[in-house]
Specification:
By secondary structure, this protein is of the alpha/beta class. It has helices at about 15-25, 55-70, 130-140, 155-170, 185-190, 195-210, 280-300, 310-325, 330-335, 350-355, 360-370, 380-390, 410-415; strands at about 5-10, 30, 75-80, 80-85, 95, 100-105, 105-110, 115, 130, 150-155, 175-180, 215, 220-225, 230-235, 240-245, 245-250, 255, 270, 340-345, 350. It is built from 13 helices and 20 strands.
Length: about 425
């Protein structure tokens, strides 16, 4: 007999909301997360001694969710600093870290959120070039601004939000470089839900008061080191310019963090929140609740509850945002110089990719070119490799398979086997 618990991977909005619904229906739930505390990306908790920078609305949402979780008492167990490795054909799951174990849960809920996209650029692998999301996590956990001058570049609403947060902390960014022209679509913007408009207005007001330059329809084309700093070369509609910074944060949108995730014939597998479709915090919370209720009904042999109307509203809003921030990124990708690193893990360049010839097969890309074969297993390079290798018909780099990430022999040996009837 397997473990009677339902395993939820991810202690963010979707995962915890699903856990609360499942526990309310009488199920025992184990929630695991690789972070040190629950919260996910949106509600990343500050380190001990650091103050929370969450807005009043965010704080209320988090308190309400945790109250729902706490109300279920011992029916929900949360294990942090624990990683999910995958599930095999027998339904056996591998967990590593603090709660390392081999177990056979009753069902598996994947709520691992979204991941940040960063399009390769010359110099993007230099020290102190990071993702915007990495800086956001740093700020949320330490409640302190980064040292030195910060430049934000790429595309998406996160750039304005992060820039406004830096202003609030007394460290305005050098500039924000936005590839799209979001301010050129006033009618589309006015059709967004009121909370989106209020938040955007608050961010823009802070940036305007701090006189932060925001370049739209612009692109960061190259990063180099110059006199102990980073030099960003910017192509704008009015010409080129160079900006010096101590840290450059890149962001080109988000997508579901589903690399390697596949289904299992041995047990129910459910994907929720941004892991299923990247629609933002409000949708993740609604999807978690709806998905948890649907899984509980399925396990009880009952009809599925009605679909959430909140999800449909958020999907429409995100589709509108995508149109507002639409821009041509294909030309910049196609024009990358030969020495540009595409795959960071294996340090493979555009020249290495071109050497494989036209329309290389997945086998050639992975085994001969070593693309997507590093520690991240293609999470950061697969999209760009596919688009460069087969511009007319990009294909996924490999197929979803377990394990979701490389597993060491030591991790396997350290995981107690809980599949031998201990829970009978």
């Amino acid at each position: 007999m397997g473990d009677p618990r339902i395993l939820v991977v991810g202690a963010g909005l979707a995962g915890l909301a699903a856990a609360a619904e499942l526990a309310c229906a009488g199920h025992q739930v184990l929630v695991v997360d690789q972070a040190r505390q629950p919260g996910g990306a949106v509600h990343r908790q500050p380190l001990p001694g650091a103050r929370s920078l969450a807005s009043p609305a965010q704080a209320r949402r988090w308190r309400a969710l945790m109250a729902d979780v706490d109300a279920q008492g011992a029916r929900i167990e949360i294990a942090c600093n624990t990683r999910f490795g995958g599930v095999d054909h027998t339904g056996t799951v591998l967990l590593t870290g603090d709660a390392a174990a081999l177990l056979q849960p009753q069902a598996l809920v994947l709520a691992v959120g979204a991941r940040e996209k960063v399009q390769p650029r010359p110099g993007w692998t230099l020290p102190w070039v990071t993702t915007a999301g990495a800086l956001q996590v740093e700020i949320k956990t330490t409640s302190e601004p980064p040292a030195g001058r910060v430049l934000l570049a790429g595309s998406g609403p996160l750039l304005l939000a992060l820039g406004a947060e830096l202003v609030r902390l007394g460290q305005p960014p050098v500039a924000i470089i936005e590839a799209a022209r979001p301010f050129s679509h006033p009618l589309q913007s006015l059709a967004l839900p009121p909370p989106y408009m209020v938040e955007a207005a608050r961010h823009l007001a802070r940036l305007v008061r701090a006189r932060v330059p925001v370049f739209t329809g612009a692109a960061l084309t190259r990063i180099s080191e110059h006199e102990g700093a980073l030099l960003a070369e910017i192509a704008t509609r009015k010409g080129s310019l160079g900006l010096a910074a101590d840290r450059i944060c890149l962001h080109d949108g988000i997508r579901p963090n589903d690399t390697g995730l596949t289904d299992s014939t041995a047990l129910p597998v459910l994907r929720l929140g941004d892991c299923r479709e990247a629609l933002g915090a409000a949708a993740a919370l609604a999807d978690g609740r709806a998905g948890g209720a649907a899984l509980a009904a399925r396990l009880a042999g009952l009809p599925a509850p009605a679909a959430s109307s909140a999800l449909a509203r958020e999907a429409l809003a995100q589709a509108r945002l995508a149109r507002i921030y639409a821009h041509d990124s294909a030309a910049a990708l196609a024009a990358l110089p030969a020495d540009t690193v595409i795959c960071r893990c294996e340090n493979r360049t555009r020249a290495d990719l071109d050497a494989l010839g036209p329309s290389p097969t997945t086998r050639q890309l992975r085994l001969d070119g070593r693309f997507g074969m590093g520690a991240c297993q293609g999470r950061f390079c697969a999209d760009w490799v596919a688009r460069l290798a087969r511009p007319d018909a990009p294909q996924p780099l490999g197929i979803p398979r377990w394990p979701a990430r490389p597993i060491s022999v030591a991790e396997l040996l350290a995981a107690p086997d809980l599949t031998s009837g201990e829970f009978e």
